[in-house]
Automatic annotation (TrEMBL):
It comes from the Eukaryota. Keywords: Lectin, Membrane, Repeat, Transmembrane, Transmembrane helix. InterPro entries: Lectin_gal-bd_dom (IPR000922), Lectin_gal-bd_sf (IPR043159). Residues 93-182 form the SUEL-type lectin domain. Pfam families: SUEL_Lectin (PF02140). This is SUEL-type lectin domain-containing protein. GO terms for molecular function: carbohydrate binding. It comes from Neolamprologus brichardi. The chain crosses the membrane at residues 5-22. The keyword Signal does not apply. The keyword Transcription regulation does not apply.
Length: 210
């Protein structure tokens, strides 16, 4: 999907699937009603924008973005700018908790996004006092789940402050992970051995996922 954002806020939605941002740029366009001097520079693009959006949106079904969050610098002073985003929707499993991720035989894990904190009042709320579930704007995107689990058949990780830090003191938090399964591909790497003047190729197996 290809999106231009001229207004301040935009909501990405994936019904029954999960968002994956693969290209974005914060640059000029949306020219209606703008003077010509604000539209002259057409080679204006801010670096790092895709990383900001990926951290906020990857692995979620709905993602709301205010263009103010990507204004880390002004790539072209005086030019009226817009946010351009390419994203797609991937089928994925979603898990909460203190957690184990498992795949089917012959598959490996690929994490789309992971968040530690609280985004609603109902998830992991059983027998928790209201004071611990009120803050629903507590979310800390984390790469740690992907670092530990990508490419594995199974993975266990604890949803705790000791692993992910504490993004909101006093709030009962959970870990939300969106992930998919991909085929497990074995690659043989051959090394050359020379024994008694004879060349022998010796295979050593390594693994990748694709």
């Amino acid at each position: 999907m290809y999106v231009y954002i001229c207004i301040c806020v935009y909501v990405y939605v994936c019904i029954c699937m999960f968002i994956y941002i693969y290209k974005t740029a914060y640059r000029e366009t949306c020219s209606e009603g703008r003077p010509q001097n604000q539209l002259q520079n057409t080679q204006c693009s801010q670096r790092g924008t895709v990383d900001i959006l990926k951290a906020r949106c990857d692995g979620r079904k709905v993602c709301e973005i205010n263009t103010n969050v990507v204004r880390t610098s002004d790539p072209c002073f005086g030019i009226f700018k817009y946010l351009e985003t390419n994203y797609t929707c991937f089928p994925a499993s979603q898990s909460h908790v203190c957690m184990s991720l498992l795949t089917n035989v012959g598959q490996v894990i690929l994490v789309y996004g992971a968040y530690y904190g609280r985004l609603d009042k109902t998830t992991c709320s059983f027998r928790r006092p209201d004071s611990q579930i009120q803050n629903v704007y507590c979310s800390n995107p984390t790469p740690k789940v992907a670092q530990r689990c990508n490419g594995k058949n199974s993975c266990t990780i604890s949803a705790s402050n000791s692993v992910f830090g504490d993004p909101c003191y006093g709030t009962y938090k959970y870990l939300e992970v969106s992930y998919g399964e991909y085929p497990h591909v074995h690659t043989l790497v051959f090394s050359l051995l020379v024994i008694g003047g004879n060349e022998i190729t010796s295979p050593s197996a390594s693994t990748r996922h694709g």
